[in-house]
Amino acid sequence: MKIPVIWLDEVDSTNTYALDNLSKLPDKALIFADSQTAGRGRRGRTWLSPRGVNIYASFVVKNPSFPVYCAAWIGGLTALEALREYVPFLDFWLKWPNDVYCRNRKIAGVLCESRTCSGGNPKGIVIGIGINLNMAKDVLDTIDRPATSVFVETGRQVDLKEFAALLTKKISRCYSIVHLSGTERFYKRWKKENRLLGKDIEFMLDNGDILNGKVSDFGHSGEIILLSDNGRIHSFHSGETSLIP
Ligand code: BTN
After folding, report:
1. pTM of the model
2. Pseudo-torsion of CA 179, 181, 182, 186, nearest 10°?
3. Is the pLDDT score of 122 beyond 70?
4. What is the rounded average pLDDT for all residues in the chain?
5. What is the atom index within ligand 1 of the atom nearest the CA of 106?
6. Taking residues 164-185, what's their average pLDDT?
């Protein structure tokens, strides 16, 4: 499946660019940028985006059969697959909802956003993917959470264009699978890769409340299902997870 690729020199955020240009951009457009001046993460955080060291990408889905949660799985799974293929000897894993981790440090994140038309129908979904490739340790240390990059883990520089081509190939394949076979196959893969299953975690709700419990399942629309320490079952579509060592 042919993916139209746009490569920008500098932009505030590839997600903002894609959302602002949604009506003009074709379905499956993939926007890369060398740098972002206002890169955005989940929960209103900033995504550090210096020039020429990492992947900053946004994939546009205008196909109405794609639910937003499934689009987000595409982001997490393609980042995971591309990292695994590029560095097969490192252990990468998915942390709910769609963060990619290497050991106990975050290496990639996904920000999925959508716009609706005035009638309420979805106009399109934008899957933002940030992958730390060549970021140096002193820069990573300025991030308020444990983060890493391929360079820090291997001591080797990644060719950004080569990695972008690999990611494009993975996105194209995933898009075709979801388009042709539906979301179920994807749900199974996404669930299998989520290493929090069965683990004791601390969960921060959107209102800041904290809940301790065991991850008992992941639902078909991307929700996390927790058995809290007081024996109750809870289900959340958003929030923040931390493993209890
Ligand atoms: C997260 O908080 O884990 C999500 C990070 C998503 C970052 C990417 S970089 C490309 C795209 N543009 C943005 O502004 N954010 C996403």
Report:
1. 0.95
2. -100
3. no
4. 94
5. 3
6. 93
C-alpha 210 – ligand 1 centre gap (Å): 25
pLDDT band with cut points at 50, 70 and 90 for residue 63: confident
Phi, psi dihedral angles at 215 (to 5 degrees): -75, 115
Q: How far is the CA of 73 from the centre of ligand 1 (A)?
A: 14
